[in-house]
Structures are given as C-alpha cells and as structure tokens.
Records
---
Amino acid sequence: MTQTRTTRLERGRGALGPALELVHTGRAPTRAVLTAELGVTRATAGAVAAELEALGLITVDARPAAAGSQGRPSHRLSVAPGGPVVLAAQIHADGFRAALVGLGGRMVATAPGCMTVPADPSHIIDAVVEAGAGLLRETGRRCLGAGLAVPSAVAEPDGTALNPLHLSWPAGAPVRRLFAEALAKAGVPGPGEGPATGVTGNDVNLAALAEHRHGAGRGARHLLCVATGHRGVGGALVLDGRLHSGSSGLALEVGHLTVNPAGLPCHCGSRGCLDVETDPLAFLTAAGRTPGPEVSLLQQARDLLRTEYADPAVRAAAELIVDRLGLGLAGLVNILNPDRIILGGLHRALLDADPERLRAVVADRSLWGRSGSVPILPCTLDFNSLIGAAEAAWQPVLDDPLTVLG
C-alpha cells in the first residue's frame, strides 16, 4: 500500500463501515454515488472502496458505468459474489431452516428441516446449526458470524426466549447460550480463532430489519411491520435504520393488542388479542374449515384464500379478519406515526386479496388516516426472518470491517 493511499485510508477509516452498508443495501451502486453519500473526496472514496475490495467484501468493476449528461463515468460497486457469508437459522412451529447468506441479503445455500419441535430447545437448535455447518462444508465459504430467529420475544441482555407461546419450550429458555454452544459443538468457525459468534432475535423483528434494508421497507424512516407466522401475530418497528427493541428487547408485542374485547382468550391472559383474532387458525376457524395436519396452518390459510376466495364463507371470514387487523393497525398508527406499514404471512395474503378494505379501515380509525394515509404494502422478501437473522450476524462487520476481519 502506497503512503498516499495509506494516508487517504486513515482519513477514511471511519467511513469503511458506512461505505460497506451503502453497497450492502444497494444505495451506492457506483463510486461516484459512494463519494456523494459519504461526503468525502473522490480519492478518499477510492481508497475506502479499494480497502473493502482487499478485504474480500466488495468488487470494484474496472469498467466504469456509463456517464450521464454531465460528469465522469464512475466505477461500479457490488458485493463480492464469492465473498464471505454468515450462517442464518430460523426455528418455527413446524421445524427449521438454515442458510448461508452473503452481503446484499443474497442467499447462497439453504437447507430446510421438518420436525416436531421438542420441549428441550437445545435439540432443534443443535439440528439447525448442524444443517448450517453442513452447508459450510459443502460450499467451502468463509463464515463471519451466525444469527438465529425464533418465534418468541427475546429478552436482553440475557438472550432468553421469554414467551415461546406456540412452542412447548419453557419460558425463559436460554436460546442465545444454547445457540453459542451448538455453534461450538458443530465447529462453525468465526473470522478469527474459535467458533462463530451467535446472535439471536425475534423472527418478526428480524423480518422487519431485512425488509427495511432489502425489501418493501427500503427508504422508510419509521417502518412498522406486522406479520403472522404459523401461529400468532408479531410486530416490529425500525427507526432510522435500527430496530426499536425497547429497554430489554420486548418492544412491539403487537399481537397482544385487544381488537375484540369479547373475543377468544389469549395465551397472555387477556381476550380478543390480534394474536388469536387474526392469525391463520382464526381465519380457518371463521371460514368453517377444520385445519389438517399435512401442512402448516399458514400454508392452509394462504391456500384457502387463493383457491376459494369466491366462496361466501371464505370471503366473509377474510373480511372479518381484515376488519380486526385494521383496528389494530389504526391504533398503532395513532401511537407510532410510522411512514410505512408492511405486512407479512397471512396478513400479506389478506392485503393482496382486498387491499382497499384494509386501507379504508385503517384510514377510518386512525387520527391522521384521512389527511395523509400511511402506505400499507406487502412484504416482498422470501424467508425474510432468515435474511434478518443474517443481517443481525452481519452487523458487527457493517459497523467495523477492519476490527472483525483483522
């Protein structure tokens, strides 16, 4: 490295993380855009890009992008296609999925697993980590970290699954510790000596993070995400690019907003919560359908909407669920004032089936709905909780690439 480049890099070292995040999220496709976004000189931006390329994280295309009507052509920037990955894992009511995910939210390899989730969480955590370790062995990719999404609020700073309501786990299961032990047991390497560091989080929180960076939430300042999983309802809020998790990781438990005071008893001890009034089981029950054991409740609900929406009973059930969901969203709009709402799981399918009804309910019930309605959009990423687990694992690298990669 020349003395000039060294000096420029020293000036721009604090920009390495922000520069990597700009390329990672697709907001800096060229070196000219990177220069403008970072507010540095062209020479410093060049040194920063060159260092990120030397670390194996991005590619600087020597062929410049086509110039516009003014200015010089600029070199293209992209994540390195053969670069390092993180191991992402998700546990849900019917099993798990493991994946290797590169920068840019790119899924490199994936391995699903179906199994009855045992009462001892260590068994399924061991299984999903071993599946991920197998993918690492098969691909030979370098691993820089690991992330796990679980269908429960995860309390901080201990990393315990506080309320895995739709699993048979005990309350307070130490999922972060078990994940770290499984990574060590499976020999999943980190960037330095020793096993990969594991981070854990709630599945909807992580889905919101992924959608904000790579999906339907891109460009939003205050993003509200509400989604159904196989059972229950979760929510998350991203403020200025960061998850709002509250004082101990338990913020945005939107599933326990009451939308039908005389409704079904909820696991939390209340009645008529979103969690039991607008999830897949609630929809199937309202439509007069008996759930079967063959596929997940979420898939059964989606299939029913897609194939039998013309049936009056199915349509009436969908409208009932939409109206209750709209009540909950309107309350959240009044409290949080988001600039965008995205919906996942069954809620996404309900929005697709009748977008105007849901938007009308939210507008009618929210204080600011009529003067400036909040956009309500479907989530767009497949496996967004899995991509979000990868985002959490990538975060130390995005914060300080040199420290992590040494």
---
Amino acid sequence: MGSFVLLALAGLAGQLVDGALGMAFGVTSTTVLLAAGIAPAMASASTHLAEVGTTLASGLSHWRFGNVDWPKIGWLAVPGGISAFVGATFLTSIPAAAAEPVVAVILFGVGIYILLQFAVDRSGPVVRVRSVPRRFLTPLAVVAGFMDAVGGGGWGPVGSSTLLASRRMEPRKVVGTIAASEFIVTIGASLGFLFGLSASEIPFRVVAALLVGGVIAAPIAAWVVRFLNARLLGTLVGGVIVLTNLRTFLQAIGFETLLSVPLYAVLIAGWLTAIILAIRATRLDRQQGTKPAVEAEDAATAAGS
C-alpha cells in the first residue's frame, strides 16, 4: 500500500508539472521507476499506459479552459502517434543510449535559448501569434513521438520547447495543444509496447498508481496554466529543460564528474535569477501600460472575425 501511494504521488507531481509546463510526466515517472529497479522497457511501457488516462484527462481539461489550438492537433497527433508506435515496438533493439546524448545536447541548447528569450530579451513582444507551417509541425511530431517512446518521455520536452522557441504561439496554447495531442501519441506508444511485450511483463499495479495521481492533478494544472504570465511560463519551461538534460549533456561532452555539482549550482542560481527578471519585466510592462502582444493580437483577430 505504501509503494502504491508513493507512486501515485509521483504521478500527481509529474502531471502537475506536465499539465502546467507541457512536459515532465513521462520523464518524472520513468525516472522514479528506473530508480526502483524496473527495466527500461517496462518503465516506459508503464508510464505510457498510465498516460492513456492522464493525457485524456489533461487534454479535456485544457480544452475546457480554452488552452487548445485545434487546427494543429491533427498535424501533431497523427504523425506523432505513428512514430511513437514504431519507437515502442523496437525499443528493445534500438540503442536508445546512443541517441540520448544527442537529444540532450539539442534540448539543453533550446532550453538556454528559451530562458534568454523569455527572461532577458526585451527587444520586442514576447509572442507574435502567427501560423505555424504544417511542414514544420509534422517532422517535429515524428521526432518527438519517437523519442517519447524510446526515452520514456520526450513528447513534451521536444514539442513544447520547439514551439515555444518559435514564439509563434501563446505559451498556454503550446502547453494545451501539446497535452491534447499527446493522447493519440500515447495510444500509439502503448499499442507498440503491448505488441512487443507480454501482458504478464507489465506491472499494472504501477500503471494504476501513476494513473490515479495523474488524473487527480490534470484539471488543477490546466486551470493554473491560464493564469501564468507568458514570460514567467517560458522561463519556467526553459529552466526545466536545461536542468533535466544537464546530466546527459555533461556525459556527452565528457565532463560529468568534473563539472556536475558546480554547474548544477550555477544553473539553478541562473534559473532563479531569470525567474526574478521575468517577474520584474512583467511588472514593468504593466506599469508602462504595455499590453502583451498575445492579448493585443487576439483582440484584433476577434474584431476581424
């Protein structure tokens, strides 16, 4: 009973972050399961089976609070689901460890970029809402879906970070759209795991615990994201990306032992500083009467429709 409650709390914490920032349920849950001694394929399978329920609850919650950009769902969900199925089916034979450092280096760089753009850059509006080309969305979904299945989490970090870096979508819409499309991606990955593994190998008690915690947290997170400022949300997401990929990034460049502790301290301090800068910038915008670009463009769109 104790382990069930702990796993449920892990699912709850992971979904609170995932639903508010568009990432972290898969990474958090898989990390906990690996630390408990569960094999990588089993850990990823358990996480994705639980996510069938949590992503459905999260997607419905984001839809209810108006956080979903529906025209983009199909272009993300369908190729992402197919790619996730392929990644899950071949997980046991794919050298995921070889690809992980490359992805970590890319995400680390994207995280730094997002931090600078949302917390420091005041040269223009934080977000200019424009169309995102379909030729951009489909490859993004294929890469994100594959990495999600192989790594036990990746749809949010790859999808959310890339769309946020484009600065073409309001952050809450990025989070809600990625969360809603993840339901299809998760189904694709789960079918792949069920196809490649015996049902007797999957720890369904673990799946149930993660599911209970995640479903409880989903509507809370979807409600919270509506009230987070664009600068602050982008800064939070950037910090999460950087910190969750730091260890693999250091391994990839061969400096894990030498720089791990001091670099973590420097980055955490830098992230806290960036959050403070984002809060101050938001207050300054309000004092100067500057209307956020997202709100202004939304109003113009509404007036012309």
---
Amino acid sequence: MGKRKLVLEDGTVFHGEAIGSEKDVFGEVVFNTGMTGYQEIISDPSYCDQIITFTYPLIGNYGINRDDFETIHPAAAGVIVRESCDVPSNFRSEETLDEFLKTKDIPGIQGVDTRKLTRIIRKHGTMKGMMVSDQVSDEEVMDRLKNTALPRDQVKRVSTVKPYVVPGRGYRIVLVDYGMKHGILREFTRRNCHVTVVPYNTTGEEILQLKPDGVMLSNGPGNPKDVPEAIEMLQTVMGQVPVFGICLGHQLIALASGANTSKLKFGHRGSNHPVKDIRTGKVWMTSQNHGYAVDEESVGKTDLEVTQYALNDGTVEGLEHKTYSVFSVQYHPESSPGPEDSNSLFDEFLDRIKKHQEQGGFPCQNAQTSTKS
C-alpha cells in the first residue's frame, strides 16, 4: 500500500496508508460514531462531499454485500479508518472494503489515530480537509484548502434526474428525492404504497397534479437554505395533502414555515442518539446524520410546535404544524443502519393520510391562505 496523508484546514496532518481509489480528494471532515453499518453509511447520499471518519477502530470486518446499499452511486468524498479489515468474515460478504472503495472511486486512509481526529473535530468543529499522496507538500495542500470553497449544489447532484414509479396498490405517495436512502423506499413498499419518486426541484403544482395521498420529503446533504426550490414547493403543498419530512426534509418544512436553521458545531452522525417525545415522554434511540438543525427560538414565531428533543444537546428533533397535517423528524426512522424504535412513524404518516381522506380529502383548514411570509 502507498502512503497517504490527511491535512486539515487548521494545519493538522495525519499520516497513514492509502486504501481505495488513488485520487486526491477535498471535502468536509466529519465523524460517525456507529459501531456497525459502514456500508450503509458510506452509501448514504447525505454524505455528499464529506470525508467520513469512523470512530469505531475496525471497519470492514464483515465485508461488503449486495443488499445493504442505500444508493447505487455513493457520493461520499472519502473514508478515514483506524484499521481496514482485509479478511472479512460474514456469509454475505462479497468483497472487502478496500475493493469496494476502489470500485466506487472513493479514496481512503487507514492507520490514522481516529480518536485524536474526532477530539479535534469535537473541539473545533467540522472543517475542510484533503487526502493526498505523501509526496505532495503540506504547503501546497494548505494553499489549496484556503482557496477552495465547499460546494453548495449537493442536493442537485444526488437527486434523481427524472421521476420514476415503484408500483403498489396502497396509498399513492410522492417522495421528493433530496438524496433519498433506499431504506425509505423499502418502508413504503413494505406497506404496499404506490410511490412516485420526483426530483428535488419539482414544483408544488407538478406534485399536486400527480394527485398524491401524501408527500414525503427525504433526507439529503448540505445546507437546507441552498434548496430554495423546495421551500417554494412546500408553501404550495402544505395544507393540501399530508406531508412527512425527515432529516433535510424536516429542516425544509421549518424554513417553509418561517423558522430558521443553523449549522451545528460537529453535527449528529451515528446510530445511538436518544430523542425524547415530549407528548408521550417516551425516549427513542435513533439513527442520525445531519450537520444543521432547526433553531428552537425561531419556531415560536411560526405555526409549528416542537414535539421532540435530542437528549444529548437539547436540539429540535421533531416538529408538527398546528393547523395542517404536516410533521417531521430530524433523524432517520428507516434506520439504515440503526435501531428500529421510530419505524412506526411511517405508520403514523399513513394513519394521517387515512384520517385526511375520511374527512373528505379536502384541503386542511386555512389551506387557501398562503404560508409565504
């Protein structure tokens, strides 16, 4: 294996061995605390342009299989591990982590002190970084880091280009793809829903022309304020049909309702984040991957109310509209990877659709009044 180094924008340098693709890569360095699920994590489109640090020391020990991908074409910029396992042991394993990264043209580095790296990110926040050959000078890398901005078009690059249908005989769901994980489709097909997946920039009028029973907003990468098309769409759709948003979709609902979002210091990325529902008092363990959050103070000026909080840091994890059939969560109820505590939220969404139809399927109260400020 060749030598490779990771250079952070604060000047910190980590040396290690190259795995995966041979190309140099630039991105935002983040960390994920999950002990398992590395295949789902790397293939999660929400990691677009990010270099993922795995805090668990041994990655690749059960290999890569054909079933656990969350997208066909991973968008992660790179992977950082303490040790990459070359001899995986699992009956489903079909290739090693290194082979998979080479196939998908994703560079990686092993032999890094990931505990030290994680502590740096926790102290100073996520930051830009580059993985390059050891032959490249630190000065050259630092110059590139200072003069290169992180992209802001991640959603456009990971969203589907054209609409497509996953047939079913149940409720008709329009799923807006902002970087959708396949686990969301799996949950709807398990419930026999007829799902139409549409691009991120589909207008509200185009969605309503599809006569959906409900609209689902997917997860996705980047800053929600970089997707103004979604906010305009929601201001047309909310109040017409039930809406359910997760992760980025949750943040977009907040923005469309007049609330604000801001960047977290180092984000929530892992599969063991406790969330409390203030209506029931129940605590769920959740799978999370986001770098932005809804500002609680701004919610009080809207028609939304907070329904759930993160127990680790008190950030907003759930919202519900006071008038319309609209609700959202910041985490991933499709649980890929992670605990299945919150999987019932998909059933709650379908129950809301049923109730809406029992009431005649008409627009909600005040639906003809625009939510635009």
